[in-house]
Amino acid sequence: MDFALNEEQQALQKLAREFTAKEITPVAAHWDERGEVPMELIKKMHETGLMNIQIPEKYGGGGLGYLESCLVGEELAYGCTGISTTPMAHSLAITPILLAGTEEQKQKMLKPICEEFGLAAFCLTEPGAGSDAGAVATTARLDGDHYVINGTKCFITNGSLARLYTVFASEDRTKGLKGLSAFLVPAGPGVKAGKEEKKLGQRASNTTEVVFDDVRIPRANLIGKSGEGFKIAMMTLDNARAACAAAATGLSRRALDEAVRYSNERVQFGQPISAQQAIQFILADMAMKVETSRLMYLQAAWMTDQKMKQTVQSAMAKCLCADTAMDVSTMAIQVFGGYGYMKDYPVEKLMRDAKLMQIYEGTNQIQRVVIGRGLTAAASRSKG
Ligand code: CAA
């Protein structure tokens, strides 16, 4: 067993760390306040080679694994999870193509995204299909050599910025989740971003409704087979949840670093507060949680790269890292005391940003459902 990153991974981590320090951290509060995506910065991220890392080189990507993608994700999130959510959600949206797309779809859809620049959006969630992802009401009707898509998605990250949408829609609502299929829908006539959400945190990301109004796409844009949409969505989330866990780890590490720095500077009772055991205990707890988070996301990402079934480990990583981010960012505010609650200091933003991590990519209650079902299914298999 080897806990060390190889040279290539270390170099990529360093590149992402330096990019974050120079390009993201200094502007994070500004874009949070404005509630806008800094598109020039996202393009720069792409030009620097910090996006599309897990896409094979023959389609213009980085040709590396989910583990490398997660390492970069932790670094970018250290600067701002509002900003890092744009590439993270993009990566989520291209995963169905990587998992179940044809060679032609990969050439046609992934290459332009990698070689030029473009964002993708994952369109699963609807007003009536949140945790119950199988309740999707958007429809896909076959009409000759085309599908016609109709419906409204909500809470879609990159909703008004994407040039490509991966859309989950029902071909036959009587079949429930077995009627769902996955489709590639390029931005174009009939695809319209609706209301843009104003959020508590991660405000530098774009979250909108997306409306599909009689959108005609070629039959060749079906991903996988008819009726496989739910399975593709679940497998996509199994892959992507490690990235969410990595981002949460980046946020937690930032909270710890800010708390350590402040506790060394802030003097009370004639000495830095870091000399007080009460503060040292908080910092120690924070540090243990950050380290545990990293191990969890690395394991889930590694299992994905090894093509192992990782449903339970991904859910555990996502759940633990997101809960940790909430916990550790709250502890950072406590170390800062009254100053931590004020916008002049960086830690209140961390807490606002962390909250979303317990909600998106499947709530942490859903992660516990997935973990619980995995445990009981394994127990009944070993009995039988
Ligand atoms: N891999 C492969 N297949 C799977 C699977 C997995 N991980 N999980 C389930 N399936 C299959 C099952 O085997 C079953 O197939 P069979 O009938 O052939 O056996 C079928 O799918 C149905 O499975 P369930 O009975 O478990 O389905 P369910 O209705 O009980 O739902 C759920 C399961 C886990 C609750 C699921 O609905 C879920 O994950 N919900 C959360 C949705 C979610 O994460 N949304 C996030 C949106 S993306 C986002 O937030 C991104 C962003 O903006 C940044």
In short:
The chain is α+β, with helices and mostly antiparallel strands.
Can you offer a commentary on this structure?
- The chain is an alpha+beta fold and about 375 residues long.
- It has 3 domains: about 5-115, Orthogonal Bundle (Butyryl-Coa Dehydrogenase, subunit A, domain 1), CATH 1.10.540; about 120-225, Butyryl-CoA Dehydrogenase, subunit A, domain 2 (Beta Barrel), CATH 2.40.110; about 230-380, Butyryl-CoA Dehydrogenase, subunit A, domain 3 (Up-down Bundle).
- Helix content is about 55%, strand content about 15%.
- It contains 11 helices and 10 strands.
- A 4-stranded mixed sheet has the order 1-4-5-8. The chain has a 4-stranded antiparallel sheet with strand order 2-3-7-6, covered by helices on one side. Strands 9-10 form a two-stranded antiparallel ribbon.
- The protein is globular, with a radius of gyration of 21 Å.
- The two termini are about 30 Å apart.
- The mean pLDDT is about 95.
- Acetoacetyl-coenzyme A binds next to helix 5, helix 7 and helix 11.
- Acetoacetyl-coenzyme A (CAA) binds near residues 131, 134, 231, 362 and 366.
